[in-house]
Design brief:
Layout lengths: L1 E5 H13 L8 H4 E7 L2 E7 L4 E7 L1 E4 L1 E6 H10 L4 E7 L4 E6 L2 E8 L16 E4 H11 L14 E6 L4 E7 L3 E8 L1 H6 L5 E4 H10 L4 E6 L3 E6 L4 E6 L9 H4 L8 E6 H12 L8 E6 L3 E8 L3 E10 L6 E5 H8 L6 E6 L6 E5 L5 E5 L16
Antiparallel strand pairs: 1-5, 1-7, 2-3, 2-6, 3-4, 4-17, 6-9, 7-8, 8-9, 10-15, 11-12, 11-14, 12-13, 13-25, 15-16, 16-17, 18-21, 18-23, 19-20, 19-22, 20-21, 23-24, 24-25
Helix pairs in contact: 1-3, 8-9
Length: 384
């Protein structure tokens, strides 16, 4: 293998490739970035044995070939080199990859073709075009409430399911927070399986790192999900998870009953108040207590270790729930994923699911579970 390529043409691809390499990998195949030189271009390939990345970049190829090079060392070296042409040669005699730039020469050991395993090709039939920045926005709205525990099976996954009305639901759930975003994409809805697809959370950050604002292509097979940039130069593929996702319609329906009464308030005012109340939360009392009237909600916390806090903000409310409590940090996190100036906290019961929606956050709902309020009695000297 012998080729010349401009550093600026390949460095972004190398950084994407190394980002999916496992931090600790015993197999030489997984420690390697594979370089395949063909007429007019070089392919960069890497995998963690599940997710796969392939990038194809223009190069002046004198001799074709395929080698694997220690991924992190190679990328670190290229990243620190100045802009300009890189001359890459596989020296079969010494078993090294020679990298030259100007008066600089570096040698890196290589893995031979016998270690290489073929990567999955992007299936071109029935591919769907989608907006990269729109997908990025969806992931930002959903990832935060997906469980980090891989042993939780479906709850550790993002769920994408087509609906009969032509919409597509994208969901995340961790047991106490649920997020749902719905959108319309007729072509994608027709390609999705009826029971939807699951993507494990551990792959979602890799998708986010790879995505760009431009359009992308997406395709689905029985076992894998494929992404490709619109220029067809980079492909990312990952395995689909095979779990049964919980029926989220059971708690979404609670938001449409007669028992639901929205409490409308200013989102920023609530977030500012919660940020101050968080200072007074402790490990034993992580909640903000809300005492609600038709025009005002009083927020409070009282801890014996740090002190107490009481704040009030204006609301619009006509329900009969007068007291409820939410984990302060979780509620802050939820509100931070909205952009609406005002939000509706859709209260169902003092210990039932609470939905949050905003007029400027179309088709986006987050459900958070309140905490059970236990009244603790403290004895005074007079009681003894």
């Amino acid at each position: 293998m012998k080729l010349t390529i401009n550093k600026e043409h390949i460095i972004d691809g190398l950084l994407k490739a190394v980002s999916i390499m496992p931090a600790k990998a015993g197999a030489q195949y997984l420690r390697s970035i594979w370089l395949k030189a063909e007429e007019g271009h070089i392919s960069v390939m890497t995998t963690d044995a599940n997710i796969e990345f392939t990038g194809k970049y223009e190069a002046e190829v004198e001799e074709p070939g395929l080698v694997g090079v220690q991924g992190r060392a190679f990328v670190d070296l290229v990243r620190q080199l100045p802009s300009g042409l890189l001359h890459i040669t596989a020296d079969t005699t010494s078993g090294n990859l020679l990298l030259k730039q100007g008066r600089r020469t570096y040698k890196l050991p290589v893995s031979g073709e016998e270690w290489f395993q073929n990567f999955s090709d992007f299936p071109t039939d029935n591919a769907v075009t989608w907006s990269g920045d729109f997908l990025q926005d969806i992931l930002d709205k959903i990832i935060f409430c997906i469980s980090d525990d891989d042993t939780m099976d479906a709850i550790a996954c993002l769920y994408m399911k087509p609906q009969q009305n032509g919409n597509i639901d994208v969901c995340g759930l961790n047991g106490y927070i649920f997020a749902l975003f719905s959108f319309t994409h007729d072509e994608l809805a027709s390609r999705l399986p009826k029971n939807g697809i699951l993507i494990q959370k551990k792959y979602l950050q890799d998708i986010k790192k790879w995505l760009c604002p431009d359009e992308i292509e997406l395709n689905i097979t029985d076992k894998r999900l494929y992404f490709r940039n619109i220029n067809k130069t980079e492909t990312l593929s990952l395995p689909r998870a095979a779990y049964d996702y919980p029926d989220y319609s059971t708690f979404m329906s609670r938001l449409a009953t007669e028992n639901m009464h929205p409490m409308t308030l200013n989102r920023k005012e609530l977030m500012d108040a919660l940020s101050r109340i968080l200072i007074f939360n402790t490990e034993n009392d992580r909640c903000t207590y809300m005492d609600i009237s038709s025009s005002e909600v009083s927020l409070s916390v009282q801890g014996q270790e740090i002190g107490s806090a009481d704040e009030s903000i204006e609301v619009q409310y006509n329900g009969d729930i007068s007291r409820i409590a939410f984990p302060t940090r979780n509620l802050l996190d939820v509100l931070g994923h909205f952009i609406s100036a005002k939000v509706d906290m859709m209260l169902t019961e003092s210990e039932g699911p609470c939905g949050i929606r905003g007029a400027e956050d179309a088709n986006y709902t987050v459900i958070i579970m309140p905490m059970k309020i236990s009244e603790t009695a403290y004895y005074s000297e007079e009681d003894v």
